[in-house]
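Q: How would the structure tokens look for this protein?
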Amino acid sequence: MTDATALAAATPGADLGWVLGVILRDWHQHVAAAVDGIPHGLRGFQILSVVGHNDPPTQSGLARHLSIDKTVMPYVIDALVDAGLVERRVDPSDRRVRRIVITDDGRMALERAEREVRTAEDAVFDSVDDSVRAEFLRQAGNLAMSIHSAQPQLDPCLAVRDVLAEPAGEGATVR
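A: Here is the predicted structure in token form.
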């Protein structure tokens, strides 16, 4: 038993929730600092990441996918538009629909932020041996896939596809 394992076992309330909470708080602190220059911080970064790595989603679909309240999303998008990181463009197949598209400046900001996030994540694992980090990420990935397999309706890949395919009708999906 390692010192850290013994300490966690001896800490009252040190269950899975406590462990995940400690890790998530540290991750959040580091990553929030890494994306500080992006309007709305982590939310802005998440939006840039989705629009930078996928076909342009609709604003409402993006809000659903990222669990951002649809009344808040316009303000976040407005800030990203004002910063020159994204644009709202008319969907060529349905003029009522606006797609969120990353700009060249947005792509550069995303690439910079992704490098900073990787550095921030390295800081989270700073005191952990590389082999332990790799094993932790492998096991966490296995657990995530196990949970995902048991609840396929939570498929993040399908959610992204649904967001990207959403026509003007709220919640409708083209397959």
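Strands lie at 86-91, 94-102.

Residues 43 and 76 are 8 Å apart (CA to CA).

Upvote if useful.
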